[in-house]
Amino acid sequence: MLKRFFILCSGADADILADSSGGEQNKYAGIGATVFFTAIMAFIAASYALYTVFDNYFSAVFFGLIWGLLIFNLDRFIVSTIKKKENFIDELLQATPRIILAIIIAIVISKPLELKIFEKEIDRVLLEQKNDFTLANKEQIATQYTPAIAAIETEIGSLKQEVTTKETEVNTLYETYIAEAEGRKGTEIIGKGPVYKEKREKHDAALAELAALKKTNTEKIAGLEIQKSQLATEYESQVVTSQPVIDNFDGLMARVTALNELPWLPSFFIFLLFLAIETSPIFAKLLSPKGEYDFKLEDLESEVKTWVAQKEDQRKVSLETDHAINDRVYGDLTEEEELYEYKKKIAREMMKKQQDAFYKRQTGIL
């Protein structure tokens, strides 16, 4: 039962193999088993790859099954269409397109399995890439807010500096009228005279201005601090909103790119393994000598070709004979007076009808 199933997978003619030796049946059963298990590996690889895309088991298994059946059909077609010939070069030329197709299939099958085998290493590379993306994302978003925040901080610094300058001026005026009162500067007369009073009034006016300036600038600084806080909140919101996009950066293409960051030698050997599995049925047929099945298949095809050629020759002879008979029949008919008179009569009636129709049309026009 299992042997018949694998023979079916090989694409060989089961009726011919039924009358062949056990060794010949085992050879094609082995080829069919390779085709079958390659399709199983294709199903597993496609299911995993599609799971990284759909993130759903049912969808991944469904489409993976379709892909496995497609690979099975392709492999079966590739193996079944290779015919043994007398010259190995002719066989190789015949198999070259199929070998190229097998290489493509091996790449497609091996890549998802490589992603699964090196999953931990790929996750590490993806984590590094996500961290880099996170930093780059923060810097990119910061470029939208940094100039505005810097302008606000500059304005706040300017307002504070304005208050500091006014305080320095008030302190200087305070020192001036105190020195006048003590007689250390100015008129150098101890006491609170007119000059002292003038300097004291000037200091008091500046002190009132300082108080008003502090109040005004404090309100402005508070408003600017609110704007600055709002910009910082918007910045954090932008970072939080865009972070899920980076966190979900683990799709199929991202994983393939991360796989390419790893050392190439292990992946290359895995590819060679699947390439050997995929091309083994082809090379098995190429390298094996002609067997009982090949001779029987060639004999059957030759019988069909001969039968088709015979049918074609018979049709050619029948057609030539029919042409010769027709030539003789129509040649004899040209000499019969009865047929001549009959066709002459019909032609005369036809010409009369044409003339009558022409006359009626011309009369209608006039």
Automatic annotation (TrEMBL):
InterPro entries: DUF4407 (IPR025519)
Residues spanning the membrane: 28-51, 57-74, 95-113, 268-287
Database matches in Pfam families: DUF4407
Keyword Repressor found: no
Coiled coil: none
Keywords: Membrane, Transmembrane, Transmembrane helix
Keyword Metal-binding attached: no
Protein name (record): DUF4407 domain-containing protein
Organism of provenance: Aquimarina algiphila
